[in-house]
Amino acid sequence: MSDVMLKITDLQKTFNPGTVNAKTALNGLNLELRDGDFVTVIGGNGAGKSTLLNAIAGVWKPDFGKIEIDGVDVTFMPEFKRAKFLGRVFQDPMKGTSPDMEIAENLAIASRRGIRRRFVMGVRRADRAKYKELLASLELGLEDRLSTKVGLLSGGQRQAITLLMATMNRPKLLLLDEHTAALDPKTAAKVLELTDQIVHKNKLTTLMITHNMKDAIAHGNRLIMMYDGNVLIDVSGEEKKNLTVEQLLSLFHSASHDGAVNDRLVLN
Questions:
Q1: What is this structure's pTM?
Q2: Which 3 state secondary structure label does DSSP give 267?
Q3: Which helix (H) or strand (E) holds 50?
Q4: 44 Cβ partners below 8 Å, 6+ apart?
């Protein structure tokens, strides 16, 4: 295993090139995450945050540059092949789970991700015991609802289960794409608390996009701010821990020479 879990070199992506709608989403971006880094990512609309996550996941192919996960070049590896390296939780709680299947069945599918084996119908008793223990760690009372259809759960419960599913096999890299943005503040705080627990317990290298600057400062060991398809600010350790929202905004103004701050960036 390499000490560098994610290495991105000179990543470039332009949508609709050569047209009036051309948009450069990633502009020669360089980024390294060491094994166990928990990096929060902020930036205004159009900064390139989601394009970055989609490039890592293989949804987009970059125009130029290189993406390596644990020393493996995945730049042009098909999305389904690189899935074995990744766990991902989306903003929409409806994504990531199958609503018409039971909680136990959803967890069973997630546990088999990236493992070559013959398809087995149903969930074994030993697996049910393991899933019950996993669900109990969420402290949401779901350990007694293994047979409940996921579609009957609340958004917060679904997102907590999606988080479990994304991390069951200890992925090389966990991608969290504004995974609390669609939840009410109390539920969002609970899901973030669970995120911290799961990431630290499993020592997962994590990249978390958020529009909440307070959350970006409070969680993880490192914070990056993106602007115009590049990393503008990169703070970690004590410097990050002692940051205030006001200081972060001041850093942004100084680094970007831009007096306008996107409304969603300073929300909350």
A1: 0.90
A2: coil
A3: helix 49-57
A4: 227, 261, 262, 264, 265
List Cα–Cα distances, 61 to 58, 76, 177, 226, 228, in angstroms: 6, 7, 18, 20, 19
SS3 per residue for 107-119: HHHHHCCCCCCCC
Q: 15 has which bridge partners?
A: 23
- Tell me: the pLDDT tens digits for 136-167? 988 889 999 999 999 999 999 999 999 999 99
Tokens of 29: 């971006």
Q: What is the CATH number of domain 4-266?
A: 3.40.50.300
* Token pair 């389904």: residue: 80
Residue 137, token pair as written in the block: 């760690």
At 212-237, the pLDDT tens digits run 999 999 999 999 999 999 999 999 99
Handedness of CA 122, 124, 127, 132 (dihedral sign): positive
- Domain boundaries in the chain? 4-266
